[in-house]
């Protein structure tokens, strides 16, 4: 159970020395109780207090990293059940299954699919994060061979090694154990041996049991064997079971501080019908999975899942923003049109996309409005005539272009007169309201 | 550590709504978060209504327009096709032709189309205006009367026009969609205003405004979750009407449902991409609380039905 601020306070030095950056030990204790501070900040806590508090102040969902290097992916550290309360922390990892019984060409096609999955969306690089290699053959040598082949072809991609066969697990870990893979894993029958292997290779361990009760006792047992980096599987396979178990696991970890289920969750979404697989994966994204394993990675499906994951994991308090500057779209000349908008990433993304569609090389002035859309920015007093005039003057764009014409978003047509007043010598043109009318608008200007 | 499942029960419950007169459809009624049948009762499946229009869908992208090419010239044929060939459980007729910038069709003409469609189907009908606040308050009044006795859903009542529309829905015993713009407080406020007129709160459907995947869906998603939590945990009756996701019209205008694979090879096959966009948007809104979805592509609707099968 989580400790209250007062319970934590009793364990602190009570000297109010302020070294932790808080005015009193009590204030610091309150922050600890809300998980908004870390115990390390107090240099004077006793070892005993550290031990008692350590358990209580650890994040409710254990942080674990899959893989190494640039493409390593973090899991866990979540603190809430609903995204409006606070930002979801570590986006769900997308993994695709490769069976070691598949043909070389099938395997190579899936690896290529992963390697070419990366794309840019609203300034983030998104990709299929991981490959899940399953020991379908139950043959250790075959598994080792496929693991090596995949690692050679995709050396940077984090791997999940799926086998309950300890000989196969050992062979695979010898080959790729230095890449911090996830070994999935341990069950009732092989827990000791798998824990031993995970410990020896510093791999994290996937733990599978039937139902939450059995799962909780298995993670306790494995923790007793010295392995703490676990990823858990309750055996849930249908969307209904996934929603139920993931909800109960997240609630137990966050509301009850129940440590035995305070681990990232792995979910299996493989379906023959790719549209249904997409929906089961979406369930994992929205409802608390840290890894979802899929059967296929078609590009259209990836795009939909990347967008969903990005949307669900954005900060509800801070809209996604792009940098304030004047962006070139195409290769604008000194005569190309100049448009202005706000720095809400969604606004930028839509408007720049439509300007691109118009095939008319242009400049898009993106003004910092703290990530608000055009109308919201206007209503909040951030996208105003004087701020627009100031921004255009400060940008120095006047020296780079032959004209002094600024195209305003149609929704703020009302600003056109006052912008003209504040930008002497400039002509303000009101553009269309909706960005999808921009191609026709820009083309018609010839 | 002994594990006890942290199940939750709540004081509140979502109102249950039944629409139609012959083959009826019911949605809502649960006393837990969406699909949480492990801790409470979820008496009904969410309902998908197929969207049709009173004018041909010229501005729909090819992927979804072509599905209806043979039937979409006429609302009655289109409605029959959805009911008989696609096994639709409900139909949503959008009277886009009444918009002043479109055909500017009169309320009387709209009423006739509604009557003809109702005569041709036995499943429930949702009747939507063109989203022009002034015109809707004329059109929806006329069609509410034309649909008298058929227990339809009329929409959408908004802050600017709710009085006349709610009065008409009330007079002719229909259900009513109340829409506000992505703000839980505005939504609550509108429901209060409408019920203060004497409209039965148990006949309302809340539309918190939809947004498409990649284009602000997180706002709709979170507003829906917050409305649902207020309904259950605070037993707030103004937040207890079922939730609507008017998905099709938001999805089928975004670039992802239109740009060719030749132009954007990284985005993959256009046909599946469009369907996936509608599927994912609908699926996410189901998970956040929607009980009624208005959709366009039959393949997306089919995937969602399969998903609901798995979730129930
Ligand atoms: C989500 C939202 C919010 C979010 C903010 C999201 C964000 N990052 O901006 C939150 C909840 C924080 C918010 C707050 C507020 N909001 Co608000 N909000 C909205 C909502 C629902 C959607 C806005 C949005 O994301 N649009 C999508 C983006 C992409 O649109 P856009 O930037 O306008 O871009 C489009 C066009 O303008 C055009 N375009 C853009 N740039 C350019 C450039 C050129 C050259 C051209 C030609 C075209 C063009 O292309 C885009 C696509 O077509 C709108 C309602 C609505 N349906 O629009 C209300 C709305 C904008 N909000 C409004 C208001 C009043 C507010 C608040 C002041 C109070 C309130 N009611 O909550 C606060 C102010 C915020 C603050 N910090 O003080 C009003 C504004 C009314 C008005 N006309 O003044 C609106 C219209 C709702 C309403 N009807 O009351 N809001
Ligand atoms: S640093 Fe430690 S002892 Fe000093 S005020 Fe903070 S909590 Fe108290």
Bound molecules: cobalamin, iron/sulfur cluster
Largest sheet of chain B: 8 strands, parallel
Question: How is the main sheet of chain A built?
Answer: 8 strands, parallel
- H-E order of chain B: EEEHHEHEHEHEHEHEHHEH
Number of strands of chain A: 17
- N→C terminal distance of chain B: 31 Å
The assigned structural class of chain B equals: alpha/beta
Share in helix of chain B: 25-40%
* Assembly state of the chains shown: heterodimer
Strand proportion of chain B, as a percent range, falls in 15-25%
Average per-residue pLDDT of chain A, rounded, comes to: 94
Q: List segments of chain A where confidence is low: pLDDT < 50 over at least 5 consecutive residues.
A: none
Strand fraction band of chain A? 15-25%
Helix content of chain A: 25-40%
SS-based class of chain A: alpha/beta
Shape verdict of chain B: globular
Shape of chain A: globular
Low-confidence stretches of chain B: none
Overall number of strands of chain B: 10
Radius of gyration of chain B: 19 Å
Strand order in the sheet with the most strands of chain B: 8-7-6-5-4-3-10-9
Can you offer a commentary on this structure?
The complex is a heterodimer of chains A (446) and B (312). With 446 residues, chain A is of the alpha/beta class. Chain A is 40% helix and 16% strand. In chain A, the strands form 5 sheets. In chain A, strands 10-9-8-7-6-3-12-11 form an 8-stranded parallel sheet. In chain A, helix 1 (5-11) crosses helix 2 (25-33), helix 6 (166-176) packs parallel to helix 7 and helix 14 (385-395) crosses helix 15. Chain A starts with a helix and ends with a helix. By secondary structure, chain B is an alpha/beta fold. Chain B has helices at 62-65, 75-84, 107-120, 133-146, 162-171, 184-196, 217-233, 247-251, 270-288, 298-311; strands spanning 16-19, 25-28, 47-53, 90-94, 125-128, 153-157, 175-179, 204-207, 243-246, 290-295. In chain B, the strands form 2 sheets. An 8-stranded parallel sheet of chain B has the order 8-7-6-5-4-3-10-9. The two termini of chain B are 31 Å apart. The model of chain B has no long low-confidence stretch (mean pLDDT 97). Classes of the chains: A alpha/beta (446), B alpha/beta (312). Chains A and B meet through helix 8, helix 9, helix 10, helix 11 and helix 12 of A and helix 7, helix 9 and helix 10 of B. The complex binds cobalamin (B12) and iron/sulfur cluster. Cobalamin sits between chains A (319, 339, 341, 344, 346-347, 350-351, 371-376, 378-380, 407, 409-411, 431-432, 434-435, 438) and B (181-183, 216, 219).
């Amino acid at each position: 159970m989580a400790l209250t601020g007062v319970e934590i306070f009793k364990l602190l030095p009570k000297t109010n020395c302020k070294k932790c950056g808080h005015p009193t030990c009590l204030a610091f204790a309150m922050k600890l109780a809300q998980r908004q501070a870390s115990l390390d900040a107090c240099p004077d806590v006793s070892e005993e207090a550290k031990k008692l508090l350590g358990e209580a102040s650890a994040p409710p969902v254990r942080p674990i990293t899959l893989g190494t290097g640039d493409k390593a992916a973090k899991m866990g550290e979540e603190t809430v059940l609903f995204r409006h309360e606070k930002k979801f922390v570590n986006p769900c990892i997308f993994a695709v299954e490769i069976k070691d019984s598949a043909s070389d060409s099938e395997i190579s096609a899936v690896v290529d699919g992963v390697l070419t999955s990366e794309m840019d969306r609203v300034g983030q690089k998104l990709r299929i994060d991981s490959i899940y290699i399953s020991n379908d053959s139950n043959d250790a040598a075959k598994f080792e061979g496929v693991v090596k082949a995949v690692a050679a072809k995709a050396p940077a991609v984090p791997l999940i090694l799926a086998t309950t066969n300890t000989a196969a697990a050992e062979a695979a870990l010898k080959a790729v154990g230095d890449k911090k893979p996830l070994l999935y894993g341990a069950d009732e029958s092989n827990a000791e041996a798998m824990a031993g292997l995970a410990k020896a290779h510093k791999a994290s361990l996937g733990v599978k049991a039937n139902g939450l009760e059995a799962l909780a006792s298995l993670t306790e047992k494995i923790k007793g064997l010295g392995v703490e980096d676990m990823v858990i599987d309750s055996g849930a396979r249908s969307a209904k079971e996934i929603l139920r178990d993931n909800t109960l696991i997240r609630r137990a970890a966050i509301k009850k501080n129940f440590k035995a289920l305070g681990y990232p969750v792995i979910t299996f979404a493989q379906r023959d019908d790719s549209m249904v697989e997409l929906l089961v994966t979406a369930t994992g994204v929205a409802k608390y999975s840290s890894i979802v394993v899929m059967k296929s990675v078609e590009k259209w499906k990836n795009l939909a899942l990347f967008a969903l994951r990005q949307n669900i994991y954005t900060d509800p308090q801070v809209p996604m923003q792009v940098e304030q500057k004047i962006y070139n779209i195409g290769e604008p000349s000194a005569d190309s049109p100049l448009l202005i908008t706000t720095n809400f990433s969604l606004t930028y993304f839509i408007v720049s996309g439509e300007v691109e569609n118009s095939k008319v090389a242009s400049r898009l002035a993106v003004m910092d409005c703290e990530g608000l859309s055009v109308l919201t920015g206007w209503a909040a007093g951030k996208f105003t005539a004087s701020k627009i005039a100031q921004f255009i003057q400060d940008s120095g764009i006047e020296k780079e272009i032959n004209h002094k014409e600024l195209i305003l978003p149609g929704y703020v047509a009302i600003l056109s007169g006052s912008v003209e007043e504040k930008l002497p010598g400039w002509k303000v043109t009101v553009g269309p309201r909706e960005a999808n009318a921009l191609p026709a608008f820009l083309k018609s200007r010839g | 550590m002994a594990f006890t499942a942290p199940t939750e029960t709540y004081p509140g419950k979502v109102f249950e709504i039944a629409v139609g007169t012959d083959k009826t459809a019911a949605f809502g009624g649960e006393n837990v978060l969406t699909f949480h049948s492990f801790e409470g009762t979820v008496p009904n499946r969410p309902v998908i209504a197929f969207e049709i229009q009173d004018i041909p869908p010229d501005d729909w992208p090819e992927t979804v327009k072509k599905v209806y090419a043979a039937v979409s010239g006429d609302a009655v044929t289109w409605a029959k096709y959805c009911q008989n060939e696609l096994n639709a459980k409900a139909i949503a007729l959008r009277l886009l032709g009444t918009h002043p910038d479109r055909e500017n069709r009169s309320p009387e003409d709209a009423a006739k189309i509604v009557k003809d469609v109702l005569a041709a189907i036995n499943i429930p009908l949702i009747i939507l205006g063109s989203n022009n606040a002034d015109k809707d308050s004329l059109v929806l009044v006329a069609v509410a009367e034309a649909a008298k006795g058929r227990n339809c859903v009329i929409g959408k009542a908004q802050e600017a026009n709710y009085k006349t529309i709610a009065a008409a829905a009330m007079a002719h015993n229909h259900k009513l969609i109340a829409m506000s713009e992505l703000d839980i407080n505005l939504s609550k406020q509108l429901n209060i205003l409408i019920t203060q007129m004497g409209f039965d709160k148990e006949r309302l459907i809340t539309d918190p405004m939809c947004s498409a995947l990649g284009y602000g869906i997180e706002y709709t998603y979170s507003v829906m979750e917050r409305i649902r939590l207020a309904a259950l945990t605070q037993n707030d009756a103004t937040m207890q009407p079922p939730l609507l996701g008017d998905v099709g019209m938001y999805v089928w205008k975004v670039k992802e449902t239109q740009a060719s694979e030749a132009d954007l090879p990284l985005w993959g096959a256009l046909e599946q991409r469009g369907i996936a966009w509608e599927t994912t948007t609908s699926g996410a809104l189901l998970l956040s609380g929607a009980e009624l979805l208005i959709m366009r592509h039959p393949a997306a609707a089919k995937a969602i039905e399969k998903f609901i099968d798995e979730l129930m």
